[in-house]
Write a structure and sequence with these properties.
Layout (H helix, E strand, L loop, with lengths): L1 E4 L2 E2 L2 E2 L2 H16 L3 E6 L17 E5 L9 H15 L3 E5 L2 H14 L3 E9 L4 E7 L4 E7 L4 E5 L16 E5 L30 E5 L10 H9 L3 E4 L1 H5 L20 E5 L5 H7 L4 E6 L5 H5 L2 E4 L2 H16 L1
The protein binds flavin-adenine dinucleotide (FAD).
Flavin-adenine dinucleotide (FAD) binds next to helix 5, helix 6, strand 15 and helix 8.
Length: 323
Amino acid sequence: MIIGLIEHDRGILNDLSLQMLTLGRRLAAQLNLPLQAVLIGADAQPLAERLPAYGVAVVHLAQHERLDDYAPEAWAQSMVELMGSLEPQVVLAAGSERGNEVMAHVASRVNLPLAANCTEAQPGEPFLVTRLRWGGSLLEEARLSGSVKLLTLAPHTFAAETTASTGELTINTFTPSLSNKDFRVRVLERVETAEGKISLAAAKVVVGGGRGVGSAEGFRTLEELAELLGGAVGCSRAVTSLGWRPHADQIGQTGTRIAPDLYIACGVSGAIQHMVGAKGAKRLLAINTDPEAPIVAKADYAIIGDLHAVLPALSAEIKRKRS
Ligand SMILES: Cc1cc2nc3c(=O)[nH]c(=O)nc-3n(C[C@H](O)[C@H](O)[C@H](O)COP(=O)(O)OP(=O)(O)OC[C@H]3O[C@@H](n4cnc5c(N)ncnc54)[C@H](O)[C@@H]3O)c2cc1C
């Protein structure tokens, strides 16, 4: 059996888990094994109904009075208990921050290796994986050992593909035995983003700013363009280090990985650590005063010029066309 952890935040599904099910289905077909899913927390139950469309007919639902919010060790312990009773051959999760965190705890509790951020998996003897290393700047081919293969799938490697569904769904509820030590790490407080704000990870258009923006106030022109295009504003680490924007806006290796249709990078040089987070963008427009900036060579389109002149002109032209 293959089991896949379906990640959610208080009942809101993380779509990266649906991408993981695409890999799960492929492995299940190759190994001739059933693919089943795991949901943790009672508020996740409604999500089960979405899973038959992605090839899952059996869902295991961990219910416990303290599983009302994310707690990585409690999630891991729930997975470990389930693994003990189901004896799966492969356990999968999305290569998200939470997916990697939970699976790292699982791996340590069952004393097995974890292959995180895989882009390919080829079952057999040996079980081969390709995975992202060094923030995505190199691909590593590795042999995964262990009686149970533990993997996470790098975000946006596969599309979330639906399948011809029988519509049948079985939900097996279980209560993991959890103790205080499983809740050493738990959510204490939530700081919500402004209502209606499009999340950086999900935005179809991202307008990103780097040190070239010059100041926190300089981001107003980026916000205006993002609003006109129905997008979100992001930034480089130079900007968060300078305190111009919060860390939640940072794109890159140590920030958010974006996958928009269009990324407009303004005054960003294109350092590898930034580009790791932007490589899911389908199109890249760079606005930079320096024609030799690395990002210009990587861009689909480039405007060589001062962003303080280019951005207001772009916004004005969009408004003129729409009026
Ligand atoms: C371990 C590690 C992790 C890191 N993680 C991240 C990460 O997650 N995300 C990230 O972004 N970085 C990360 N970095 C930092 C990264 O290496 C770069 O230092 C950073 O991305 C540079 O930011 P920048 O492009 O805004 O600034 P700079 O490199 O200073 O580039 C500024 C650019 O603006 C242009 N410019 C200046 N004025 C204008 C103007 N008026 N109009 C148009 N263009 C103008 C310049 O030509 C230049 O190309 C990390 C570094 C390390 C070591």
